[in-house]
Amino acid sequence: MAETTVTQPPATRRLRDYGVYAALGILVLYNLAFTENFATLANLNTQLVQVTPILIAALGMALVIGTEGVDLSVGSVMALSAALLPLYLGYGLMPAILVALLGGALCGIFSGTLVAVVGIQPIVATLALLVGGRGLALVLADGRLKDIRNPMLLELGSGSVLGIPIVVLIAACLTLVVGFLVRYTTFGRQLVAVGGNRSASVLAGLPVRRTLIVTYVISGVLAAVAGIVATARLTASDPSAIGQLAELSAITAVVVGGTPLNGGRVRILGTVAGALLMQLISATLIKHNLPSSAALVVQAAIIVVAVLLQRPRLGGGG
Amino acid sequence: MTAVTEKTAVVAADKGMTKREWIAGLVQRRGSLVVLALIVIVSTVAFDSFATVDNARNIAMQSSFLAIVALGMTFVIISGGIDLSVGSVYALGGVLAALGIQWGSLTGILLPLVVCGGIGMLNGALVAYGRLAPFIVTLATLLGARGLLLAITDEGSNTRVMPRDALLTQLGQGTLLGVGYPVWIAVVLFAVGAVMLQRTRFGHSVLAIGGSVEAARLMGLPVARRTMWLYTGSGLLAGLAGALAAAYSASGVTIVGVGFELDAIAAVVIGGTLLTGGAGTVGGTLAGVLLLMVIQNVINQIGTLSSHYQSVVSGAFLAAVVAIQAYLSRAHLGRERGT
């Protein structure tokens, strides 16, 4: 991080660190002024609920990117957990959720081991799971969509406590937990150290492999949670649609949130703001009758701007 | 276990080219070809309908589009980069071909090439001159190109049909010596690509850049310019493949190409090209593409297996290949990074 201070003027650095909050703030103000029915509780809840699966997956993605990796498999893991859920709902909701989470953890162990022990680049290791995971999900579900009739799971998807949707509460809790994990625990410090300089971490005697594997496991479990939430929201387990391209949305949220792709830094709150920003952009464009194609182009432009701001770090010393 | 491997790797490096290294290198470069041959032999014995002219023609045609995209990807990955935008660009190429053909076949082929080449050049410029991470730049153009596609097709609802008798449509559907033109085009492009990579200054500089950007720059190679052309080429090839695929199906289908970049990357990696850059072959990529397509074909031949097993097998195969590669490359290259 000292490197950043040297290579970046303070203004750029501040823009990089707080730009996403500023952009989010401006967009919210714009909507308050020009979009009808924006400042209603219903709309606010809709926006938040829509973003929860991506947000939860993005939390894990932020950790993985913090280790200088990337987890392309989150979308497929979401599909896998969605496919596992109805298979075990017969035994009750809790066992089904546990199995789905276990599936996510196993996926994390798989990619984590490939990355940390076998020494494969994160992109390829998780690419294999991206390709295979969704196939496995479709095989498990027989390629079919299954309606969810479990009342508790449906309540989880559509219910709310004190006016706040349950899924939003789950996302908020997970954000707090992951944020705490990064900032205040040994594991968090080790994660950032491994991402910042892996060789140095090895030399310093840090448990590099364990840290990496645990990071991918967390990402897998969070993706599984995202899959459960998406299933509960959809009131159906649809392994061919759930989590489709979620990895790209999650990466976008993390990068726009100011976490550099080259590791050593994790910004959980920024990631949340990044996910909200991307959600709000497409919502705003749709509300103003702009086509979804415009939303895609605007998102592309925002990604480029976000990485341009991080450029001095990404460019390295060269 | 790994510690032992590393130790052996160091010893092997000291002795120069050992037998182990030689085998490692061979498996790395020719492994996909060997597995491909094995699968083809086994399937020929196991399924009557596998080794037929029709089926071979079928596999060749299906492979040709992915192969053309994977060719550009091979060069990009050898240079140490990655191009995630090719799936969207491929779809965009098809839609643009169907759009342009109403002004004649020449426009039908030039429009996708110009626009997709332009997108590739934008990728290249941002990577080479903007010094942005290829992964994220091409992720942005993945979204942007898909957005452009939606914008020119009334949000994806308008699938333009290409006239059957147009020259471009013939290029997609016609055959020469019983083999479709797209297959011939893919074969010619791979031959040119192989010569370019192995025998020309351009190819050597791409290998050098992938090996070490810093060293390449110090040697005085025009790193930025080369990098920009690599991505331009990747965009061009993806656009061409899309245009050919559209001509083959005589329509600019808007929903194709999602995840196509991943197939292309998988084919390149299975073909023995290192994602770290600096090493790889065009022929390996061709074997990788064929391998993916043959696996798909064999699963269809088995019939009782659901087609979803195809991606499970592809994924498992990819994981196995890269695991073996990682294991071998320690012996072969002695260039282990990180731990």
TrEMBL record, chain A:
Is Transmembrane included in the keywords of this UniProt record? yes
Q: Where in the cell is it found?
A: Cell membrane
Q: Which UniProt keywords apply?
A: Cell membrane, Membrane, Transmembrane, Transmembrane helix
Primary localisation category: membrane
Against InterPro entries, the record matches this protein to: ABC_transp_permease
Membrane topology, as annotated, equals: Multi-pass membrane protein
Please verify whether the record's keywords include Transmembrane helix. yes
> Transmembrane stretches, by residue range?
18-35, 47-65, 72-91, 97-118, 123-141, 161-182, 213-235, 241-261, 268-286, 292-309
Q: Which PANTHER family match?
A: ABC TRANSPORTER PERMEASE PROTEIN YPHD-RELATED-RELATED, GALACTOFURANOSE TRANSPORTER PERMEASE PROTEIN YTFT
What is the name listed in the Swiss-Prot or TrEMBL entry for this protein?
Answer: Ribose transport system permease protein RbsC
Organism per entry: Kibdelosporangium persicum
UniProtKB/TrEMBL annotation, chain B:
How does the record say this protein sits in the membrane?
Answer: Multi-pass membrane protein
Q: What is its main location?
A: membrane
Is Transmembrane helix tagged as a keyword?
yes
Lineage: superkingdom: Bacteria
Q: Which residues cross the membrane?
A: 33-53, 59-77, 109-128, 135-153, 173-197, 228-248, 309-328
Swiss-Prot/TrEMBL keywords: Cell membrane, Membrane, Transmembrane, Transmembrane helix
PANTHER family from the xrefs?
Answer: ABC TRANSPORTER PERMEASE PROTEIN YPHD-RELATED-RELATED (PTHR32196), INNER MEMBRANE ABC TRANSPORTER PERMEASE PROTEIN YJFF (PTHR32196:SF63)
What name goes with this protein?
Answer: Ribose transport system permease protein RbsC
**Species lineage, top-down?**
Bacteria, Bacillati, Actinomycetota, Actinomycetes, Pseudonocardiales
